[in-house]
Design brief:
This protein is α/β, with parallel strands linked by helices. The protein has six helices and nine strands. It has one domain (about 5-150, about 185-215): Rossmann fold (3-Layer(aba) Sandwich), CATH 3.40.50.
Amino acid sequence: MRKSAIIFGATGLIGGHLLRQLLDNPVYGKIIAVVRRDIGITHPKLHQLIADLQALNTIEAELIGDDVFCCLGTTRKRTPDLTDYYQVDHDYPVAIASITKGNGASAFMLVSAVGANPDSSNFYLRIKGEAERDIRAVGFESLHIFRPSLLTGKRHEQRWTERVSEKVLWAINPLLVGSLTRYRSIPAASVAAAMNSIAQREAKGTHIYYWNHINMLA
């Protein structure tokens, strides 16, 4: 019997690649994509749940799957209010984990960030660290946390600072060796491929992946 997957953030940089990869993966017979609006993709395995993440309880009964992929994330430009920012990067992922675990999901794949630490003085890294900590507490049989550095790839919204950063990091990536390899930039498609791959290995416990791990899995 084929598995089912639930994906959040399917319209984002990583999530867009991941959705296509999951649809192409014969292991899955059903892909539930929770989105704010119709994403314009038709596929026999795809089931879109159009919902506001502030009201996840309204679709709770439909969030039933084996593997859960959480690719949610925002930016200060899109979400300048820090309370709203915290909600997107912490509250929603934790609520998703709690609901899907209660509905029987066994594996949770989370996109976090290199440097995530609940005790960090950096607002972004602290949010990511707190999200990781609180999702760990949910108690999934398998929890896989991906901590990429700067993501590369074609974005819907063009941010000149990230375009510049991509070029700079592309040049210095070879200089980042040893423990510094985790700070190398990485294509979003590679992170998506690693998430898709690790979900099939059924590794129990909590696992954290950096640049080198992600490249080996992709």
